[in-house]
Amino acid sequence: MIQNNRPSFFPRLLVIVLVILLVALIGTLIGAPAIAARSFGLADRSLNPILRAHYAITLLRAKDELLTGAQDSNFPRKFRIEPDESVEALCRRLEDEAYTSSGSLFCTYLVYSGLDRKIQSGTFTLKPELNSIEIALTITNPEARDIAFYIYPGWRLEEIAASIDLSGFEFSDEEFLAYTFAPPDSIRAQLQLPAQASLEGYLYPGEYSLEPHIDLESTIEVFLSNFRAHMQSPELLEGISAQQLTFHEALTLASIIERETRADEEKSTIASVFYNRLAEGMRLQTDPTVQYALGFDETEQTWWKTQLTEADMQVYSPYNTYLYAGLPPGPISNPSLASLEAVAFPAQTPYFYFRAKCDGSGTHAFSVTYEEHLNNACP
Fold first, then answer.
1. What is the DSSP string of 198-224?
2. What is the pLDDT of residues 87-141, one digit of tens each?
3. Domain 25-145, CATH 3.30.70.100 — does that match?
4. Is 62 helix (H, G, I), strand (E, B) or coil?
C-alpha cells in the first residue's frame, strides 16, 4: 500500500487564515490610529498598540458626535473644575450639564489623547459652539482658564487697580484708572453720574470669573452689570427716594458706612447717626473721608491711614467731612449691598455719635450726647 506524504489541506488552510488574521490585526493596530489621527490628533504614546487601536476605533465610530457641538445654550457658560475632581466625575458632569452628548466618549478621547493627565482646575468660559474635542482642549489649557478676580467691599479704585495689575489681565492698572476716573459719556448717561464723577462706588464688590482675554471695556461692563442687578432694585430705589436722597448721594453715604464698619448688623444704626447729624446741620466728622482725601500713606503703605493726626483732620479737600458740612462730592469706596440697604432702610434712633468698642469686636458703642460719647472712650 502506497502512503500519501503530502501535507494535509486543512493545516495549510489554517495557516493561511492565521496569516490573514495577523495581517488584519496588524493593519488595524496601525491603520485605525493613523486614520483617527487625522480627526483627533496622535494617540498618547503611553498606550499600548491594542488600546491605541481600540480607542481609535471607538472615536472613529462616533466621529460626527464628537465633532458636533452638543450645547443647546446660545450664550457662553461657566464650567468649574475642582482640584480633586476625578476624570470620570468630570466627564459625567459634562454630559449632565449638556456640554457633551456622551461623557464616556469624552473620557475616551481624553485617555486616547493623553489629555486626561492635563486637566486644569479652575473656571472656564465654554462657548456654545464648542464641540467635545474643543472643550477637551480648552479645559486642559492653563491659558484658557478664567481669571479669578475679587473686589472687596470698601476698596477704592486704586486698590482695585493694584489687584488688576496682579491678576493677568491684558490691560494695565493705569489704563483701568484712566477709564474709571474718566468714564465715557455713554456710561455717564447710563448711570446718571454727576459732572466730573468717576466710577468710584459703582464697581460691585464680589467674586468674578472673567475670560482670560477680556478687554477693559468688557471687564468694566461686567462689574457695572452686577452693580445694576444688585444695587438698583425697585425696592432699594424706593427706599432711597423715601430718604430724599439722589442715588449718587445714597451711594456716597453707603461708601462711608462701608469704611466705618464690617458688621452688617450695625450698619443701619450707623446710617441713623449720619441722618440725625445731617438733619441737625452737624458735620458728619467721619474719619474715612479724611483717609480718602489723604490718599496713599507712604509710612503705613496703605490707602487708609489709621493713625490720623490733628494736621490730617485739616486736610483741604471737599471730601473732608470735618471741614465741610453735608456729604462729600461722591463715594469714597465701593460699598456692599448691605451698606446701601442701611442707607435705604435706616434704623430710627436718637444717636448722634459712635465710636469703636474697647473689646476688640470691631463693633461700635452709640451715644446721644457728646458727654456720653467721651465716656465711651477706651481707658
1. -STT-S--EEEEE-TT--HHHHHHHHH
2. 999 999 999 999 999 999 999 999 999 999 999 999 999 999 999 999 999 999 9
3. no
4. coil
